[in-house]
Amino acid sequence: MSSSETQGSDPAAQPGQDIMPNDEMSNATGFPIVTRTDFSETTFLLEVEHPQMARAARPGQFVIVMLDDHGERIPLTIADFDRDKGTVTLVIQAVGKSSREMQARCQVGQTLFGIAGPMGIPSEVSHAKKVICVGGGLGVAPIFPQARAFKEAGAYVIGVVGFRSASLVFWEEKFRSVCDEFIICTDDGTAGIKGLVTQGIETAITTHGDIDEVVAIGPPIMMRACAETTRPHGIKTMVSLNPIMVDGTGMCGGCRVRVDNKVKFACVDGPDFDGHAVDFDDLMARLQRYRPQEAAAMERYSESCKRLLVEEEVR
Questions:
Q1: Is the pTM of this model over 0.85?
Q2: Are 108 and 137 members of one domain?
Q3: Is the same domain home to 113 and 218?
Q4: CA distance linking residue 251 with residue 18, whole number of Å
Q5: Which of the chain's termini has less CB crowding within 10 Å, N or C?
Q6: Both ends of the chain: CA-CA distance in Å?
């Protein structure tokens, strides 16, 4: 799960709402940002100080983040946690109004207004002896805690990650430290295998005839492709779903998904589900539902940014 917003949704945005200048944000109370890393023009990492969250977090869980007291509630899968340092790590893709606002305003020394969680059922680290952990795009980050957990449980871990090109690859050494084998796939062939993560899965299955489980996190179309790749082999495949979400507690009903022809709520029944039972057509249709609102929110945000630039020039 990246978030409803990272799919572009901003149904709660208010018309005419302006962004808060950076100096106001720095004076706000909240959770300190201790590290920021930019992986690309749109993808960035925030390490946030939150000792209680770091102690409670488990692989597969997510948090609800608010940039400020007027901000949208953004669900983000926990990409990492460090109990000794008391920090949680989030990797965010700036594609919608709120995530772009976070990209512009979240700097080391500033704070996030609120972080609620950890939410969702932690991923089951089974007794599987050989596991493939697959991450695509933004899903690369949250697959890391799962790979590490399987490794700590004694499994032979094969990591498969996919990016558009070599310039977008991140955390390679981090993954190699917890994976027995590590396969990079790129769309343009500039790193690792040229092709999709499904080719990496097929390579691993061909090499190892005793894969017990596959765990995949990424865009819905990627997770569906992973599930279809493993289906003929009868390999258990778990996916982490990222439907539109508001409260994260099962109250709003926005994160409804269909699994094995039954309605489930990703926030409280998941986010992990059997990939062979998920109705991906329904999931992807629901993710398109707020496109007009998303476009309107981005337009308002862009206008707010322009006004601030004009005001600064006048000063």
A1: no
A2: no
A3: no
A4: 29
A5: C
A6: 42
